[in-house]
């Protein structure tokens, strides 16, 4: 055979092998992480985790109840504040300001905020909320999460509304529906599953966020529902327990990590199923 | 009947005017609610910049530009001596090593997924990559602390040290006592973390290549590698660079994956197996217990990080936008 062919074939086979190797390498690392997480998390998972508060140093009795409740409260509050803002902002970008200069500026800034380091958001909320309020608080934590939610929801809302065919809007306008009702009754309904997808993705994103909570909500060893005091939450609790010298605390950290991962994966998969439904239609 | 139609006639115009004005009011309110929400995004960015500058101001006044090249970090000295050189070095080195590992592997996986993989495997692997991009970074950090760190310290580093012992530059890079906590461990975890980002963006970008182009190349007898090298990569170059810079932005600002295993040491060492710190790790581990000038110095570090990532991310977005325009979106 022609030596040039031989060389080209050989290069091709080598590169294909390397790509295959890369895929195997990547998948192995990631599988390794999930397997250790499952193994270590499941050994400590029991009912106690959901019924008892975090233990004091050295104790081997206790669970993560206060941290789980705190995380739930702050996530719900964060999404509750951030999602409507993101939704409305996305609506403006997609419905009112399609060819606006303002829209392209906002879209650009939003894309940057979308991947801005979350610890910077923590610093921002510390300066803007914690210092004026003279203390760490759950509400500061929730606001930090809300700032992370807004760009995610805004992005998906805009993308989803742009997918709604214009003929639908024109038909509704032709029937005499005012603009705001065209958006609320027609565009929102047509894009509903996509909008929910965005909110789910944003929830998944903030459910495991640690850095912005480190110095906004701090953490709390006790059960607390008060919004203007520090509040326990899973990510910061894990952060504190991992670096502790106590074996039981480390065990709890693994269990907490498993809980977070399962929640995040479930939210992501839910969002994906909803998204797939939309494209199938 | 007649009476009723009279009622409708009488009520009609009045109700119509009322309904129309209600519509108008509703329209206007809704418009302004959405517009103000959209503007709030700009306010958030402005708020971030202002609050960082205000918080960092005391440190800026105290240290000036020398903050950038002072290596000493002694917050408890009197007066405190603070310098950003250590964390900046750590941030850049860990991100650099992480990208060095993650770019070829991530692109390899993307090529595998778009060109080589059998159809039935494509969805599961693609889905797995997407899901892994969503796992919170603290999980990666924990894994690095409990699993990867010990493995590297006990197995990998002694091996590398034995191999490169006596080799001029490499010898110094790998020298030093093996440790759980080092720049290299942090970089490796970062690489594993940004891998899914690079892969999923590259896959998206590779999909924008018109099939006709690839088919034409295969038609004249190109091998898979030649198609990738001469058609797919040139066509998507801007997008790939954009994706890589997006991942770089993540790596530079990543906090929780790094904090546990970097060792939080502000000294710069020639060995990558020595402990170090990054800007985000320094903030995460010291901020809650800091006050006064120390805290202001940490906020100044945050401001540096924000400026750095802002430019990287802005460049990334501009590049991705260019590709989108090309794809005719």
UniProtKB/TrEMBL annotation, chain A:
GO molecular function annotations of the record: phosphate transmembrane transporter activity
Compartments where found: Cell inner membrane; Cell membrane
Membrane topology (UniProt): Multi-pass membrane protein
Chain segments annotated as transmembrane: 20-42, 62-87, 108-129, 135-154, 194-218, 252-275
One BP term from GO: phosphate ion transmembrane transport
Occurrences of domain ABC transmembrane type-1 (ranges): 68-271
Protein name: Phosphate transport system permease protein PstA
Native source species: Bradyrhizobium cajani
Taxonomic lineage of the native organism: Bacteria, Pseudomonadati, Pseudomonadota, Alphaproteobacteria, Hyphomicrobiales
Record gene name: pstA
């Amino acid at each position: 055979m022609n030596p040039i062919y031989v060389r080209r074939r050989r290069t091709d086979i080598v590169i294909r092998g390397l790509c295959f190797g890369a895929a195997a390498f990547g998948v192995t690392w990631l599988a390794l992480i999930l397997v250790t997480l499952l193994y270590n998390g499941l050994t400590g998972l029991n009912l106690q985790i959901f019924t008892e508060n975090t233990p004091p140093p050295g104790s081997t009795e206790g669970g993560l109840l206060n941290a789980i409740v705190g995380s739930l409260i702050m996530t719900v509050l964060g999404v509750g504040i951030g999602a409507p803002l993101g939704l409305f902002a996305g609506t403006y970008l997609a419905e009112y300001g399609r060819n606006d200069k303002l829209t392209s500026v906002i879209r650009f800034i939003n894309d940057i905020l979308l991947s801005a380091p979350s610890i910077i958001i923590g610093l921002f909320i510390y300066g803007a909320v914690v210092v004026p309020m003279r203390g760490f608080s759950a509400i500061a934590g929730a606001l930090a999460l809300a700032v992370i939610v807004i760009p995610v929801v805004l992005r998906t809302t805009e993308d989803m509304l742009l997918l709604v065919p214009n003929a639908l809007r024109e038909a509704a306008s032709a029937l005499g529906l005012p603009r705001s009702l065209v958006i609320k009754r027609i565009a929102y309904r047509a894009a509903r599953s996509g909008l929910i997808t965005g909110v789910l993705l944003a929830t998944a994103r903030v459910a495991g966020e640690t850095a912005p909570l480190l110095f906004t909500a701090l953490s709390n060893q006790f059960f607390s529902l008060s919004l203007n005091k520090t509040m326990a939450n899973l990510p910061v609790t894990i952060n504190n327990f991992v670096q502790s010298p106590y074996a039981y605390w480390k065990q709890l950290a693994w269990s907490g990590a498993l809980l977070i991962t399962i929640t995040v994966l479930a939210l992501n998969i839910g969002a994906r199923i909803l998204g797939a439904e939309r494209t199938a239609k | 009947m007649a009476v009723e139609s009279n009622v409708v006639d009488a009520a009609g115009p009045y109700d119509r005017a009322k309904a129309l004005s209600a519509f108008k009011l509703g329209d206007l309110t809704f418009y302004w609610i959405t517009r103000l929400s959209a503007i709030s995004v700009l306010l958030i960015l402005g708020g971030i910049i202002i609050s960082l500058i205000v918080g960092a101001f005391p440190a800026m006044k105290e240290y000036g530009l020398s903050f950038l090249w002072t290596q000493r970090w002694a917050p408890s000295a009197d007066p405190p001596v603070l310098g950003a050189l250590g964390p900046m070095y750590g941030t850049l080195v860990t991100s650099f090593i992480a990208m060095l590992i993650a770019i070829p592997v991530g692109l390899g996986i993307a090529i595998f997924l778009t060109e080589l993989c059998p159809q039935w495997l494509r969805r599961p692997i693609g889905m797995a990559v997407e899901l892994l991009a969503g796992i919170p970074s603290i999980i990666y950090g924990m894994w690095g602390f409990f699993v990867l760190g010990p493995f590297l310290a006990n197995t990998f580093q002694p091996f590398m040290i034995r191999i490169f012992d006596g080799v001029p530059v490499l010898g110094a890079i790998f020298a030093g006592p093996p440790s759980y906590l080092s720049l290299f461990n942090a970089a490796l975890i970062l690489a594993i973390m940004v891998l899914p980002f690079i892969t999923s963006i590259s896959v998206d970008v590779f999909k924008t290549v018109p099939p006709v182009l690839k088919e034409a190349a295969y038609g004249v007898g190109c091998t898979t590698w030649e198609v990738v090298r001469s058609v797919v990569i040139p066509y998507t170059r801007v997008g790939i660079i954009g994706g890589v810079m997006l991942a770089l932005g993540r790596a530079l600002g990543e906090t929780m994956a790094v904090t546990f295993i970097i060792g939080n040491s502000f000294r710069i060492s020639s060995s990558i197996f020595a402990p170090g710190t990054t800007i985000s790790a320094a903030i995460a581990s010291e901020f809650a217990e800091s006050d006064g000038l120390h805290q202001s110095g940490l906020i100044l570090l945050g401001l540096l990080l924000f400026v750095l990532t802002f430019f990287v991310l802005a460049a990334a977005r501009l590049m991705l936008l260019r590709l989108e325009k090309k794809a005719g979106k």
